[in-house]
Amino acid sequence: MIRSRKDYILTRWKVPLSDIDIGEEEIRAVTGVLRSRWLSMGPVTAEFESQFAQYVGVKHAFAVANCTAALHLASVAVGLRPGDRAICPSLTFVATANAIRYTGAVPILADITSENDLNISPEEIERKIDSSTKAISVVHYGGYPCAMESILSIAKRHDLYIIEDAAHALGAATYVRLDSGDGKKTVLRQCGALGDVGCFSFFANKNMVTGEGGMLTTNRDDVAEKIRILRSHGMTTLTWDREQGHSFSYDVVGLGYNYRFDEMRAAIGLIQLKKLEFNNQRRAVATSVYKKKLAEIDEIHIPFGEVQSRPAYHLFPIILDVNIGRNAFMEFMQENGIQTSIHYPAIHTFSAYRDVCDSGNDLTVTKDIAKRIVTLPLYPNLEEHHIDYIVRTIKRYFTETAARS
Ligand SMILES: *Cc1c(COP(=O)(O)O)cnc(C)c1O
To answer: Which residues contact 222 (CB under 8 A, 6 or more apart)?
Structure first.
């Protein structure tokens, strides 16, 4: 007998790190697809892509197997190849940098801005640009938009592509001053609609879930056409087109992949997309409750103190004081049924990256923060009494360790 996730989580954790909002509506939607007997990419996926594109505010959206596949396709679509370099942060999930390496290009890791702004630093990006640099891969850490106005202007000045790893940032938006026909105008733009191509994840702990799953977004017709072809073996037609009698054969025009999506996940995605704004709002409320209640604890610092943008509140990270042992802190939380995590062990410290990037005296803020950062639970259903319990436990940890020392 398989235990349900709910039973599992409730027996193991009083407060898990993340939790999903899946209900009868998703179950009915999947059942409907199964009854339709068309399971791979087809009309439900097309509808999901169309609604997703409209929500993010882009011309094109392509559903794919996962965000890592999206990042790979984005790297190929902007033309990364051996000999090229692409700049990305070290404080991110490894997939951001892996996707650059899949093409034979080299990821150049850049530092984050500060203890308050955990996003890639525009100054550090600019410092790392050389004649081989072709792209910048930005990550909107925790759902907090990067300094996109600066990054867009750097990319323009150096003729670089921008890939947005927006895995945390579905629904996040930021203000940018853009050249429109009649002079400069400030507009609110969603993450994934700011660079040349955006990549989203629907993995089970993201703001919107389909199990595995991802999406590419772009306003560029040329990039869109490449993605369309490369997502399905480089073939010029899809099985669905042939089923519809639109064509009998196909050509293969590039070295493509099978990164397709399926109808069951698209059906879940359509329901999840409807719930997204409400759930992001609940994440925002939980974040502000946390901030208020944690403010009086001197031993921790809360990043992203003042933001001008509209975050998606994917993560709630805290930074511990330099002299606090992170392992002991996380163990104490675990003993009290609170799941915490680290976002992220920095990429430059991984064995598989030691020969790829020499971090030397570089990445000083990342090196400091990566040792002190802890992620606390955050999900739409996180209630005030959960947060009270978490804050009480944190306070208890500091009073007890102070009493012992
Ligand atoms: C989750 C995540 C990914 C990978 O997403 P998958 O859908 O699991 O492939 C990439 N980048 C970041 C920043 C992520 O958080």
So the answer is: none
For the domain 5-270, what is the CATH code? 3.40.640.10
Q: What is the pLDDT of residues 278-325, one digit of tens each?
A: 999 999 999 999 999 999 999 999 999 988 899 999 999 999 999 999
What are the strands of the beta sheet with 197-201, ordered from one edge?
Answer: 60-64, 214-218, 197-201, 161-165, 133-139, 85-89, 106-110
Mutate to test the pocket of ligand 1, among 66, 67, 314 (most ligand atoms within 8 A of CB): 67
DSSP 282-345: HHHHHHHHHHHHHTT-TTEE-S--S-SSB-----EEEEE-TTS-HHHHHHHHHHTTB--B-S--
CATH classification (class only), 276-404: alpha beta
Show me where the domains of the chain are located.
5-270, 276-404
| Single-letter amino acid code for the residue at 9 | I
Q: Residue 81 phi/psi, 5° resolution?
A: -155, 175
pTM of the model: 0.96
- Total Cβ atoms within 10 A of residue 107: 26
Picking from 313, 302, 55, the residue whose alpha carbon sits closest to that of residue 190 is: 55
> Position of tokens 């640009």?
129
Confidence (pLDDT) at 5: 62
Length of the chain: 405
Beta carbon of 92 within 6 Å of any ligand 1 atom: yes
Does the beta carbon of 374 sit less than 6 angstroms from any atom of ligand 1?
no
Q: What is the pLDDT of residues 163-187, one digit of tens each?
A: 999 999 999 999 999 877 778 899 9
First to last CA, the chain: 48
Residue 283 CB: number of other CB atoms within 10 A?
22
* Residues that are catalytic: 206
